[in-house]
Amino acid sequence: MSEDQKERLQKVIAQAGIASRRAAEDLIVNGRVQVNGEIVRTLGTKVGPKDQVAVNGVPIEGREKLVYYLLNKPRGTVTTNHDDKERPTVVELMADVPERVYPVGRLDYDTTGALILTNDGDLANQLMHPSGRVDKVYLAKVKGIVSAEQLEPLTRGIKLDGRKTAPAQVAIEWVDKNKGVSMVRITIHEGRNHQVKNMLAKVGLPVQKLKRERYAFLDLMGLQPGEHRKLTHEEIKKLKAGDYRNRRRK
């Protein structure tokens, strides 16, 4: 068998729906993966269709069908497959999906909105890689009467933890002077932890509520909190092609 017919071990594990590509790499490094009865710890290892791969002693029976979903994540759920604190997870909301899916990226426990779940490790890595520059649009309810001047530094980039953020797109949705709160729309393509909250806090606007209303061109139209839908063939094709432009589904 030629090398062209073989695939990296972590990719095979991810495509089998066992774990994300990144988690599969951890499984390999920690000695929990066997190939033809031998423990393999090298990430560059390639395997073919005739190789027997086992994870935690359990053979991979074959590759699952690749599936792609968009979830409207509700508050009070964690973006992971398992939670040590036994909090509700986004995966538990996908109980009707027979395949083993995992979230692409993260949303905070109290953040709501658009989240992709899939068992396609290649696409997940593509979307999460910084070079992808996938736009993520958030609506943030903040404490304070916001002004354009206050938001202007965000459009140039500000330092968080010693590293400058990429320029963001920002807009004021509304201001309630009586209650002393405002709604801000912010678009970023990075994925640092708590990035939107930290950016707004940096300019004196603590976030009270945060919702991701769009991921690439995918919006939440027709989805109530906790609901999910399959991505269409056209949507999947566009994501894989790196076409993240904002065009509504017809």
From TrEMBL:
<keyword id="KW-0413">Isomerase</keyword>
<dbReference type="Pfam" id="PF00849">
    <property type="entry name" value="PseudoU_synth_2"/>
</dbReference>
<dbReference type="GO" id="GO:0160139">
    <property type="term" value="F:23S rRNA pseudouridine(2605) synthase activity"/>
</dbReference>
<dbReference type="InterPro" id="IPR006145">
    <property type="entry name" value="PsdUridine_synth_RsuA/RluA"/>
</dbReference>
<dbReference type="InterPro" id="IPR000748">
    <property type="entry name" value="PsdUridine_synth_RsuA/RluB/E/F"/>
</dbReference>
<dbReference type="InterPro" id="IPR002942">
    <property type="entry name" value="S4_RNA-bd"/>
</dbReference>
<protein>
    <recommendedName>
        <fullName>Pseudouridine synthase</fullName>
        <ecNumber>5.4.99.-</ecNumber>
    </recommendedName>
</protein>
<dbReference type="InterPro" id="IPR050343">
    <property type="entry name" value="RsuA_PseudoU_synthase"/>
</dbReference>
<keyword id="KW-0694">RNA-binding</keyword>
<feature type="domain" description="RNA-binding S4">
    <location>
        <begin position="7"/>
        <end position="64"/>
    </location>
</feature>
<dbReference type="InterPro" id="IPR020094">
    <property type="entry name" value="TruA/RsuA/RluB/E/F_N"/>
</dbReference>
<dbReference type="InterPro" id="IPR036986">
    <property type="entry name" value="S4_RNA-bd_sf"/>
</dbReference>
<dbReference type="InterPro" id="IPR042092">
    <property type="entry name" value="PsdUridine_s_RsuA/RluB/E/F_cat"/>
</dbReference>
<dbReference type="Pfam" id="PF01479">
    <property type="entry name" value="S4"/>
</dbReference>
<dbReference type="InterPro" id="IPR020103">
    <property type="entry name" value="PsdUridine_synth_cat_dom_sf"/>
</dbReference>
<dbReference type="InterPro" id="IPR018496">
    <property type="entry name" value="PsdUridine_synth_RsuA/RluB_CS"/>
</dbReference>
<comment type="similarity">
    <text>Belongs to the pseudouridine synthase RsuA family.</text>
</comment>
